[in-house]
Amino acid sequence: MSYVEVPGAKVPIRMWADPATVEGGAMQQLQNVATLPWIKGLAVMPDVHYGKGATVGSVIAMHGAVCPAAVGVDIGCGMSAVKTSLTANDLPGDLSRLRSKIEQAIPVGRGMHDSPVDPGRLHGFPTSGWDDFWGRFDGVADPVKFRQERATKQMGTLGSGNHFVEFCLDTDDRVWLMLHSGSRNIGKELAEYHIGQAQKLPHNQGLVDRDLAVFIADTPQMAAYRNDLFWAQEYAKYNRAIMMGIFQDVVRREFKKAGVTFDAVISCHHNYVSEERYDGMDLLVTRKGAIRAGSGDFGIIPGSMGTGSYIVKGLGNEKSFNSASHGAGRRMSRSAAKRRFTARDLEDQTRGVECRKDSGVVDEIPAAYKPIEQVIDQQRDLVEVVAKLKQVICVKG
Q1: pTM for this structure?
Q2: Among 54, 129, 295, 360, whose CB has the most other CB atoms within 10 angstroms?
Q3: Distance between alpha carbon 275 and the CA centroid of its chain, in Å?
């Protein structure tokens, strides 16, 4: 489909989703965003749903301002994937050992490494810039600095919720490694600190929603947020890179006889801010639950823990600010999913996938998400499909 335009207070709302299917709370959030004085454009992806602070699946383009709650608390959250030389024929009949090895190597939930991971020991990890990155930690917000030790030990860890590590097969039976994570606790604490700072500022007192409080260009508060935001986005990128390096090492050891090789890693943020130029104007583009899909950009759009995912290439559609969806998108909240489904339902819906099937992850059941095929179909003018993947192992926190 192409987009549908819904009238908004300051800008039209371009929707790559049927407005009739979007819940009222999410539509109200979008209308609220469209009232912001600094807004220059708003695009809505087909995985749109109500979110904390701002709508998930929204792309907000502003001039001279940025809304920290619209970025969300998992700054830099995103995906990484890599194609391997392995095929389905290389896999054992029982995948439980491989899943166990992945879980032993990559801490999940609130877990962390016993000591910081040395990226130099990871095959092919780009260590240039690593020392400079950690050197810049001294410049982040003072109230968060005491978390440095925890941040170093959480680097290369998964977290919980919808984060995952997967071992997948494409339609040619080639094995792919894929994972989803962000900036862990340090990103959350930086985000919460700055959201609180923004809400105190005088220019934000008359907003229709206090979650839409912004920082304005050329102010010390904006400079401080941008510094911490871009640092946290880099943390998330390194976090995924280290996890992927660990994951590759596990696979190398487990398939030593096959002599595994890996293609270039594809990686993309889907909760972040980028400086971009449209119609001759420099804008701050916030993607909350959206990936960049500029012409030729590779991206990853996952479904759920029992359906599958897509590797895509951007078509460079400026109407969406060169963006596409970040996943299938939830069609029911976590609490609603827990009320409606049981561990038995999860077992049924993840048949054939080596994964957790207990009540602790029922909120991630495939039925809680929109159909990924439909979501992909609604953005044919934003991306082209490069590969379709189906997981055979899924590790969750």
Answers
A1: 0.96
A2: 54
A3: 18
Q: What are phi and psi of 296, to 5 degrees?
A: 85, -5
For residue range 65-82, what is the model confidence (pLDDT) as tens digits? Answer: 999 999 999 999 999 999
| H/E stretch holding 57 | strand 56-62
Taking only the tens place, the pLDDT of each residue in 300-310 is 999 999 999 99
Catalytic residue flag (residue 269):
no
pLDDT at 3: 95
Distance CA 308, CA 392 (A): 9
Set 163, 194, 270, 326: catalytic member: 326
Contact 270, 78 (CB under 8 A): yes
Q: How many CB atoms lie within 10 A of CB 67?
A: 27
Are 119 and 127 in contact, with CB atoms under 8 Å apart? yes
Which of 38, 96, 94 has its CA nearest to residue 67? 38
Quick check: 66 and 214 in contact, CB under 8 A?
A: yes
Distance in angstroms (rounded) separating the CA atoms of residues 170 and 158: 23
HSE of 107, CA atoms in CB hemisphere, 13 A: 16
Euclidean distance between CA atoms 172 and 80, whole angstroms: 20
